Amino acid sequence: MTDYLIRRVLGAFPILFGVVLLTFILLQMIPGDAALVMAGEHATPEQVERMREELGLNRPLPVQFAHYLGRLVQFDLGRSVLTDRPVAVELRERFPATLELSLAAMLIAAVIGVSLGALAAAYKHTWVDACAMAVAMIGVSIPIFWLGVELIYLLSYQAHLFPIEGRGYAPAYSLTGLYTIDAILSVDFAAFSRAASHLFLPALTLGLLASALMARMTRATLIEILEQDFIRTVRAKGTGAWRVWRHAFAAGFVPILTVFGLQLGMLLGGAVLTESVYSWPGLGSFLVQAVFARDMPSIQTLVLLSAAIFVAANLVVDLLAGLFDPRLRQRFQTNQ
Asked: Which residue segment(s) compose the domain that 166 sits in?
């Protein structure tokens, strides 16, 4: 298992290097001048040229790329053109918001997706199955920005149930940066209610979309398992339905876990459209602002961080699958 882990970690470096290189090349194709944005639209040509020299934009592209790699190896992420602050500071302040949103969304997705998938598997090829999968198909097909706007209109403007912008303000006691968790730790129920009300709509928007894929995977996995011989044996022994389903979920846990981990990795990489719709101060909304400002240090860092999170999520899911499934653990040991 240790050798497998080392190989996977070392294999991630070429992937991340490819992401850095591709991002750098694509950023050169974006119209606009970062030096002009940084200096201001009323800056003189001399000021713009001076800013271009300070940012290193007057150097040849290979030299710029090599300089960026050198700083990256030293964990120097540069300064944001947009905010004129270190990119590392922006990430440290914004990542807890994205983490809280992603965890809440995946909790909603797990509850809705697994429930719908299990219901469809229990009543396969009936109207219940058709309705559940129709809901899942609609969830996959709906554009996330449209869903966010509709939820804002229905639950905020019409029903006046939830706020629609930002996270509110932090609880008095802040340890993790996750407002709901900090409110619980400080036993501040008013702060928890305020944080949860701001969190609910964006988390529901993301969770509904993620639940669609989880529902389809849960249904397909459980239907396949319920038709296997060991389930027939369990039923032949007169075991109750609850124990039968417990055996089925235990056998199908790894595929469901895989989908869950990959979805969480994607969300942690930055839920761009959802954070933009709800003005959620996380990595996704910051990436949108950075693109419009042609903030190359921030864009490069955010894309690299997204790739690293996705690679790490894949690795963690593989390791957890090996812990829960002895057959996969044996395969890891065989490949060493």
From this structure: 93-335
